[in-house]
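Example record

The entry below shows one chain as it appears in the dataset: sequence first, then C-alpha cells.
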Amino acid sequence: MSTPETTRFVRLQVELVLEVDDADAVTKAALRRLAEESADPEMPEEERAHAESTVTEDTAEALAYLVDPFDLISDVPGVELQQASWSSERIEYDPDSPDWDLDEDDVEDDGEEGGIG
C-alpha cells in the first residue's frame, strides 16, 4: 500500500525513434544553442570546447543536446520536473520488424492493456 507522499511522483517513460534527414542542420542547431548557453560566464571554456566537439562529431549527441525534458512538461499545469535523464544512440531501424512494436510495453503482467487508449 502506498502513502500519499509516494503517490505524488510519476515516472514518465518516452522512447522516440527519429529519422535524421539533415545531419548538418541538427549539428548547426546544437552549436547555436551551445553558443547561446556559452554566453553564460559560469560555463568553463574547457566544458564548452568539449560540448562543441561532441555535437560536431556525432549527430546523435547533437540531438541529445537539443532535446530538453523540461520543454516537454513546462506547459503542463500542476507538475514540476524533479529529475530527468536521457541519452541518444545511432540504431538500425526497421519499422516492419516485430522488434519495434512499441505497444509491447503497454501489456502489463496480468495481461491487461496499460497506457492511454
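Notes for this example: The helical segments are 23-38, 45-57, 59-66, 69-73. The chain has a mean pLDDT of 82.
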